[in-house]
Design goal:
alpha+beta; 6 strands
Length: 186
């Protein structure tokens, strides 16, 4: 009887050990971050009401949140991405795995917030493209709109430890960047 009890305890311990291993391996797999939600949470209410956040996933699917996203069709989003946002940011298909970006298409506002997951080996390409965007905004606004020039001067492009390249060119850029970095690190 004592041998049966020892065998049952040993079997139970083995079962718990396997269950614990399974739990730790499944919890180590992280879910992809929701970049559009991170941008939404970092912005003020006015920007969330007026500025669309375009999303492109790893499969090339287009979606949007905030702003006028409710009225935009998939074809509208694709056209906006391919004809305006991606060229403005200097990004090409193949440079990124996924991204979320909110960019002013008007020449009277320095505004862009983007989180880009670069494709393998494309981090430097993505970072340079976004830095070129910032330089372009600074040159455009320098002799045009002083308040927008100050916003462009304060813009940052940062590669975070998790690998995403983050562009912040907006009012309260330090607070927006900190919020995004904290969310990506969580």
């Amino acid at each position: 009887m004592k041998k049966i009890l020892i065998a049952a305890v040993a079997a139970s311990m083995a079962l718990f050990a396997f269950a614990a291993c399974g739990a730790s391996s499944s919890s180590s797999v992280s879910e992809p971050k929701d970049y559009s939600q991170i941008i939404h949470d970092a912005r003020n209410d006015e920007d969330n009401e007026t500025m669309l956040i375009l999303n492109i996933d790893k499969d090339g699917n287009f979606s949007a949140t905030d702003g006028y996203s409710e009225e935009a069709t998939t074809e509208d989003l694709q056209a906006q991405a391919e004809n305006f946002i991606l060229p403005m940011l200097g990004l090409s298909e193949g440079d990124y795995e996924s991204l979320s970006a909110s960019v002013s298409l008007m020449n009277v506002r320095s505004y862009a917030v983007a989180i880009v997951k670069p494709a393998e080996g494309k981090t430097d390409t993505v970072k340079q493209a976004l830095e070129d965007y910032v330089t372009s905004q600074q040159k455009s606004m320098q002799n045009y709109l002083a308040d927008q020039y100050e916003i462009a001067k304060a813009a940052t492009v940062t590669t975070v430890p998790s690998g995403e390249v983050v562009l912040v060119c907006c009012e309260d850029s330090d607070a927006v960047l900190t919020s995004i970095q904290d969310a990506l690190a969580a």
